[in-house]
Amino acid sequence: MIEARLLAAIRGERLVFHNVSFLVQPGGALLLVGPNGAGKSSLIRLLAGLTPPAAGALLWNGDDALDDPPLHATRLAFVGHMDAIKPGLTVADNLGLAQRRDRVAILAALASVDLERFADLPARLLSSGQRRRLALARLALSDAPLWLLDEPTTGLDAASVRRLEQNFAGHRAKGGMIIAATHLPLDLPGATPLDLSRMAV
Fold this sequence. Notes:
Blueprint lengths: L1 E10 L2 E11 L4 E5 L6 H8 L7 E6 L2 E2 L4 H6 L1 E4 L11 H9 L3 H9 L16 H14 L4 E5 L7 H16 L3 E5 L10 E4 L6
Parallel strand pairs: 3-8, 3-9, 6-7, 7-8
Antiparallel strand pairs: 1-2, 1-4, 4-5
Helix pairs in contact: 3-5, 4-5
Protein backbone atom coordinates (compact mmCIF):
# COMPACT_ATOMS: atom_id res chain seq x y z
CA MET A 1 0.00 0.00 0.00
CA ILE A 2 1.36 3.41 -0.98
CA GLU A 3 0.00 6.60 0.52
CA ALA A 4 0.73 10.27 -0.11
CA ARG A 5 -0.06 12.86 2.54
CA LEU A 6 -0.10 16.51 1.51
CA LEU A 7 2.85 16.19 -0.89
CA ALA A 8 4.34 19.27 -2.52
CA ALA A 9 7.03 19.56 -5.19
CA ILE A 10 9.34 22.33 -6.33
CA ARG A 11 10.84 22.46 -9.84
CA GLY A 12 13.53 25.09 -10.23
CA GLU A 13 12.29 27.78 -7.87
CA ARG A 14 8.60 27.20 -8.58
CA LEU A 15 6.14 25.30 -6.41
CA VAL A 16 4.57 22.91 -8.93
CA PHE A 17 1.83 21.39 -6.78
CA HIS A 18 0.87 21.10 -3.13
CA ASN A 19 -1.55 19.21 -0.87
CA VAL A 20 -1.47 16.03 -3.00
CA SER A 21 -2.92 13.11 -1.05
CA PHE A 22 -3.97 9.64 -2.20
CA LEU A 23 -3.98 5.99 -1.19
CA VAL A 24 -3.41 3.05 -3.55
CA GLN A 25 -4.16 -0.42 -2.19
CA PRO A 26 -2.88 -3.73 -3.65
CA GLY A 27 -4.60 -4.29 -6.98
CA GLY A 28 -5.38 -0.59 -7.28
CA ALA A 29 -4.49 2.05 -9.83
CA LEU A 30 -4.13 5.82 -9.86
CA LEU A 31 -4.29 7.92 -13.05
CA LEU A 32 -2.49 11.27 -12.94
CA VAL A 33 -4.15 13.68 -15.34
CA GLY A 34 -3.91 17.37 -16.12
CA PRO A 35 -2.38 19.68 -18.73
CA ASN A 36 1.33 20.00 -19.46
CA GLY A 37 3.08 21.68 -16.55
CA ALA A 38 0.59 20.45 -13.95
CA GLY A 39 3.30 18.33 -12.34
CA LYS A 40 2.50 14.77 -13.47
CA SER A 41 6.12 13.91 -14.28
CA SER A 42 7.33 15.71 -11.15
CA LEU A 43 5.00 13.59 -9.00
CA ILE A 44 6.07 10.35 -10.71
CA ARG A 45 9.74 11.20 -10.08
CA LEU A 46 8.96 12.05 -6.45
CA LEU A 47 7.14 8.74 -5.98
CA ALA A 48 10.13 6.93 -7.48
CA GLY A 49 12.43 8.55 -4.93
CA LEU A 50 14.32 10.48 -7.61
CA THR A 51 13.46 13.89 -6.14
CA PRO A 52 12.61 14.75 -2.54
CA PRO A 53 9.23 16.21 -1.62
CA ALA A 54 9.16 19.88 -0.66
CA ALA A 55 6.53 19.03 1.94
CA GLY A 56 4.35 16.15 3.04
CA ALA A 57 5.05 12.44 3.41
CA LEU A 58 5.13 9.34 1.24
CA LEU A 59 4.27 6.14 3.11
CA TRP A 60 4.66 2.46 2.27
CA ASN A 61 2.48 0.26 4.46
CA GLY A 62 2.41 3.08 7.00
CA ASP A 63 6.19 3.67 7.14
CA ASP A 64 8.22 6.46 5.54
CA ALA A 65 8.83 5.14 2.02
CA LEU A 66 11.79 7.44 1.37
CA ASP A 67 13.63 6.68 4.62
CA ASP A 68 15.57 3.88 2.86
CA PRO A 69 15.99 4.80 -0.86
CA PRO A 70 17.64 1.49 -1.92
CA LEU A 71 14.81 -0.47 -0.33
CA HIS A 72 12.19 1.77 -1.96
CA ALA A 73 13.84 1.20 -5.36
CA THR A 74 13.19 -2.55 -5.02
CA ARG A 75 9.45 -1.90 -4.61
CA LEU A 76 8.94 -0.25 -7.97
CA ALA A 77 9.42 -0.52 -11.71
CA PHE A 78 9.74 2.90 -13.36
CA VAL A 79 9.26 3.73 -17.04
CA GLY A 80 9.78 7.42 -17.77
CA HIS A 81 9.84 9.56 -20.90
CA MET A 82 13.25 8.20 -21.93
CA ASP A 83 13.27 4.58 -23.07
CA ALA A 84 16.78 3.87 -21.68
CA ILE A 85 17.65 1.52 -24.56
CA LYS A 86 21.29 0.67 -25.34
CA PRO A 87 21.42 0.77 -29.17
CA GLY A 88 24.58 -1.35 -29.42
CA LEU A 89 22.96 -4.34 -27.67
CA THR A 90 20.43 -6.73 -29.11
CA VAL A 91 16.79 -6.42 -28.12
CA ALA A 92 17.08 -9.45 -25.82
CA ASP A 93 20.35 -8.28 -24.29
CA ASN A 94 18.76 -4.95 -23.38
CA LEU A 95 16.45 -6.90 -21.06
CA GLY A 96 18.93 -9.51 -19.89
CA LEU A 97 21.61 -7.02 -18.92
CA ALA A 98 19.51 -5.22 -16.33
CA GLN A 99 17.27 -8.07 -15.17
CA ARG A 100 19.74 -10.98 -15.15
CA ARG A 101 17.01 -13.34 -16.31
CA ASP A 102 17.27 -16.44 -18.49
CA ARG A 103 16.42 -16.35 -22.17
CA VAL A 104 13.04 -18.07 -21.72
CA ALA A 105 11.86 -15.32 -19.35
CA ILE A 106 13.27 -12.63 -21.65
CA LEU A 107 11.50 -14.07 -24.71
CA ALA A 108 8.24 -14.25 -22.73
CA ALA A 109 8.62 -10.58 -21.77
CA LEU A 110 9.27 -9.67 -25.41
CA ALA A 111 6.23 -11.70 -26.47
CA SER A 112 4.09 -9.66 -24.08
CA VAL A 113 4.86 -6.59 -26.22
CA ASP A 114 5.03 -8.45 -29.58
CA LEU A 115 8.80 -8.10 -30.01
CA GLU A 116 9.99 -11.69 -29.63
CA ARG A 117 10.81 -12.01 -33.36
CA PHE A 118 13.29 -9.13 -32.97
CA ALA A 119 15.12 -10.66 -29.99
CA ASP A 120 18.49 -10.93 -31.76
CA LEU A 121 18.21 -7.69 -33.72
CA PRO A 122 20.39 -4.74 -32.67
CA ALA A 123 18.19 -2.32 -30.75
CA ARG A 124 19.39 0.58 -32.88
CA LEU A 125 17.29 -0.80 -35.75
CA LEU A 126 14.02 -0.54 -33.83
CA SER A 127 11.46 2.15 -34.62
CA SER A 128 10.53 4.65 -31.91
CA GLY A 129 7.35 2.70 -31.13
CA GLN A 130 9.28 -0.57 -30.91
CA ARG A 131 11.82 1.07 -28.59
CA ARG A 132 8.97 2.15 -26.35
CA ARG A 133 7.58 -1.39 -26.32
CA LEU A 134 11.02 -2.72 -25.41
CA ALA A 135 11.17 -0.32 -22.45
CA LEU A 136 7.72 -1.51 -21.36
CA ALA A 137 8.79 -5.16 -21.68
CA ARG A 138 10.91 -4.60 -18.57
CA LEU A 139 7.68 -4.51 -16.57
CA ALA A 140 6.98 -8.16 -17.42
CA LEU A 141 10.34 -9.12 -15.87
CA SER A 142 9.88 -7.09 -12.72
CA ASP A 143 8.74 -8.52 -9.40
CA ALA A 144 8.13 -5.00 -8.05
CA PRO A 145 4.62 -4.46 -6.67
CA LEU A 146 4.42 -0.83 -7.84
CA TRP A 147 4.62 0.23 -11.48
CA LEU A 148 5.27 3.95 -12.04
CA LEU A 149 4.64 5.02 -15.63
CA ASP A 150 5.08 8.43 -17.23
CA GLU A 151 3.06 8.67 -20.47
CA PRO A 152 3.40 4.91 -21.15
CA THR A 153 1.41 4.99 -24.42
CA THR A 154 3.66 7.53 -26.16
CA GLY A 155 4.54 6.18 -29.61
CA LEU A 156 2.32 3.09 -29.30
CA ASP A 157 -0.25 2.00 -31.87
CA ALA A 158 -3.71 0.79 -30.83
CA ALA A 159 -2.71 -2.90 -30.73
CA SER A 160 0.29 -2.13 -28.50
CA VAL A 161 -1.89 -0.09 -26.14
CA ARG A 162 -4.28 -3.05 -25.82
CA ARG A 163 -1.38 -5.39 -24.99
CA LEU A 164 -0.13 -2.91 -22.40
CA GLU A 165 -3.58 -2.75 -20.82
CA GLN A 166 -3.65 -6.56 -20.66
CA ASN A 167 -0.30 -6.47 -18.85
CA PHE A 168 -1.75 -3.90 -16.45
CA ALA A 169 -4.72 -6.19 -15.72
CA GLY A 170 -2.41 -9.15 -15.06
CA HIS A 171 -0.22 -7.14 -12.69
CA ARG A 172 -3.22 -5.85 -10.73
CA ALA A 173 -4.77 -9.35 -10.55
CA LYS A 174 -1.65 -10.46 -8.66
CA GLY A 175 -2.01 -7.59 -6.19
CA GLY A 176 0.24 -5.16 -8.03
CA MET A 177 -0.34 -1.41 -8.06
CA ILE A 178 -0.10 1.06 -10.94
CA ILE A 179 0.38 4.82 -10.94
CA ALA A 180 0.40 6.27 -14.43
CA ALA A 181 0.62 9.81 -15.77
CA THR A 182 -1.23 10.11 -19.06
CA HIS A 183 -2.84 12.47 -21.54
CA LEU A 184 -4.63 9.65 -23.34
CA PRO A 185 -7.38 7.33 -22.08
CA LEU A 186 -6.18 4.07 -20.50
CA ASP A 187 -8.37 1.08 -19.76
CA LEU A 188 -7.69 0.69 -16.05
CA PRO A 189 -11.01 -0.41 -14.55
CA GLY A 190 -11.67 1.15 -11.16
CA ALA A 191 -8.64 3.45 -11.34
CA THR A 192 -8.85 6.64 -9.31
CA PRO A 193 -8.21 9.82 -11.34
CA LEU A 194 -6.11 12.56 -9.75
CA ASP A 195 -6.25 15.90 -11.58
CA LEU A 196 -3.04 17.71 -10.65
CA SER A 197 -4.23 20.95 -12.22
CA ARG A 198 -6.39 21.33 -9.11
CA MET A 199 -3.29 21.13 -6.92
CA ALA A 200 -1.20 23.49 -9.05
CA VAL A 201 -0.09 26.78 -7.58
